Amino acid sequence: MKNDLFSIGGLTIHGYGLMIGIGFLAAYLLSDYRAKQKGLNPDHVFGIAVWGIGTGLVSAKLLYYITVMDDIVRNPRILLDIANGFVVYGGIIGGIAGGYVYCQRHKLNFLRYADLIMPAVALAQGFGRIGCFLAGCCYGMETEGAFSVVFRDSAYAPNGVKLLPTQLMSSGLNFLHFAVLMWLSGKWKRDGQTAAMYLIFYSVGRFVMEFFRGDLIRGSVGSLTTSQFISLFAAAAGAVMLLVSKNKPKSADN
Questions:
Q1: Its pTM surpasses 0.70
Q2: What are the angstrom distances between the C-alpha of 74 and each of 54, 63, 69, 77, 79?
Q3: Cβ neighbours of residue 226 under 8 Å, at least 6 residues apart?
């Protein structure tokens, strides 16, 4: 609702950036703690985080450029705005790719570290969507119902209009997603199962949530939004991972 939270001297603290930062920090601290519990090297958690965040940001930006390519053709100066415009799915794909490359370089069990980190990713996304709410981006469709929010000074959402608070809805789902993944990670012992369920749960939730979004100028593939289209493949990849993991031997925490 209010992105500019406060200022320290000439520095303005923005709600979106603050919540993203809190999400990254919470995810890292949780993964570091769980790595020590499971006998995994926490130094590699830091390395995976650096690679994943770096490649995730680049991928999220590139996917955004793809979704607004028509606008870029008309106004190439859009390419110069590197601070705004990211697509979450791009970040997920790029982050996973970065983590995989890091694990390959260091000869680590990628699936084991993915199982460790993916619940923390869901936690970070929960905080990130609160940031979206403060900034007014990723807003919902117009509604006449009581379950709504009205933005007064947003640079993204239409102001003075009752909208579904899809940011908070997504945040709640992400926190629930985190809790379920943490529970499953304590039950399942085969490498890749928790990471697979992250892909399945997130994809299904995102596919459904897209029907309630009001910021529809985000690219489309046929009758589906870009995110819905990607969700189909992400869910399928998760399902394949889950089937393959069932044939793997159980891993034992050291």
A1: yes
A2: 29, 18, 9, 9, 11
A3: 63, 66, 67, 87, 89, 218, 219, 220
- Residue-wise pLDDT tens digits, 15-32: 888 899 999 999 999 999
The dihedral over CA atoms of 200, 16, 229, 184, expressed in degrees to the nearest 10, equals 0
Please report where in the chains the tokens 């520095």 appear, as a residue. Answer: 11
∠ CA(232), CA(239), CA(211), 5° rounding?
30
Amino acid letter for position 22 = I
From CA 237, how far away is CA 224, in angstroms rounded?
19
CB 122 within 8 A of CB 174: yes
Q: What are the tokens at 177?
A: 């997603």
pLDDT in tens, 183-216: 999 988 899 999 999 999 999 999 999 999 998 6
3-class SS of residue 140: strand
- Residue 11's H or E segment, with its range, is strand 11-14
How far apart are alpha carbons 197 and 203 in whole angstroms? 10
- How many helices (H) does the chain have, and how many strands (E)? 8, 6
Q: What token pair was written down for 241?
A: 């991972």
